Amino acid sequence: MDDVHFLQSLLRINSSNPPGNEHEVTKAFIERCKMNELPFKVTNLGNNRSNFELTLKGTGDKHLFFCGHMDTVSPGETEWTYPPFSGEIIDNKIYGRGASDMKSGLAAMFLAIESIYLEKITPIPTITFLATAGEEVDSCGARAFLEETENRTIDALVIGEPTNEKVVVGHKGALWLEITTFGKTAHGSMPDQGINAVDHMVHVINELTSLKLTWTIAKEPLGSSSLAVTMIEGGIQTNVIPDRCIIRVDIRTVPPQAHEKLIEELRGKLDKLIEKQKLYEYKLTKVLDRPSIITSSSADLIQCALAIKGETDAQCFGVSYYTDGAVLNPRSEIPTLIYGPGDEKLAHQPNESVAIDAFKRSIEFYKNLALSFDTTMNGHKSLAQGGTE
User: Fold this and answer.
1) pLDDT tens-digit readout, 24-56
2) d(CA 180, CA 232)
3) In Å, how far from its chain's centre is CA 152?
């Protein structure tokens, strides 16, 4: 099975999360490893979910870590021109859910390490490839990996998310909040007998709109922070005063913004609304919390990546989406490169695809990175030290 056919085989596996079923992808890696006598490790997470790992021992004392996720978002309700689990090739592109985000990057990292093994090259750094479950929802795979590898040390981390082959040095943080306002039901014709939770939510949204202006900051190359109310639900029926309203808020942050401080400030604003009798009762829940990560462009890993591309003086980039790096390296203590063949603009879109040429170039890029990784770097960082939020 050649490289392109291997990627097609991964795209034909439905690992939409939920429910994930990432073990089906793991089986494809296992089959490939057994075929080539490549050592591997599987961590069973239950419910047909797992992490897959392989390590090539190097001659030196440094550790280079490649990581990607096996799950995807669902294909969605919009009809695809090419079936989302077909892996169909049209005009030198492979189509399928996960083609960009991020089975192409995942496959390319694996194939690069497989190539080193099959060519009987002993790398200087120890090289680990980790394919995780659950990144699209809760990063359960990355968290499980940390729990069983408390003393693992690492010198550099490579995340194969879609960057359109750009050298990316960081991503924004993501903070998702759920806010519920409570009230009291009454007949719709007698609104003064109830407490309207929807009306109260309007005041909450106004506070968020105001905070959005004061919270917004910019940091290159990540860009600006942002806040958006993305979901709203409330009410029972037309003639009933609603006693509950719920919104979801998507906040993207950049250093030095601290999520807990943002939550504390928001709670203060909501408490004042209660004092002013514009809010009866509320509940604030943290749904997702991923810190931003950033690596200096002068880091050896980044300079090595730029040199491979012949772009030592080129601009480095940031991305808006979060990665498993936020779990594995939440305090940006480990130099981290985000690099993949997929186009981030195609992620989560109908007719998601990846260019075959970009996929093949990325295999060579990852291979060159593994073999030319600078072994003069000073000191190790432990995943345990950098591995919990």
Assistant:
1) 999 999 999 999 999 999 999 999 999 999 999
2) 10
3) 21
Catalytic residue flag (residue 71): yes
Q: What is the pLDDT of residue 78?
A: 93
Q: Distance of CA 218 to CAs 99, 105, 225, 255, 318, Å?
A: 31, 29, 6, 9, 12
- Confirm whether 135 is a catalytic residue: yes
Task: For residues 337 and 294, give the distance between their C-alpha atoms in angstroms, rounded to a whole number.
Answer: 9
Q: Which of 88, 101, 114, 135 is catalytic?
A: 135
Q: Which pLDDT value is given to residue 314?
A: 80
Residue type, 200: H
- Structure pTM? 0.91
Token pair 């919270």 is found at 215
Q: Please list the ranges in the chain whose pLDDT falls under 50.
A: 375-377, 384-389
As given in the structure block, the two tokens for residue 379 are 């000191």
Contacts of 301 (CB under 8 A, 6+ apart): 156, 158, 295, 335, 336, 337, 373, 374, 377
Cα dist. 200→179, 213, 249, 268, 322 in Å? 11, 21, 16, 16, 32
Catalytic residue, candidates 3, 22, 53, 71: 71
Distance CA 357, CA 3 (A): 11
- Residue 178 Rama label (left phi>0; alpha psi -120 to 50; beta): beta
Radius of gyration of the chain from its Cα atoms, rounded to whole angstroms: 23
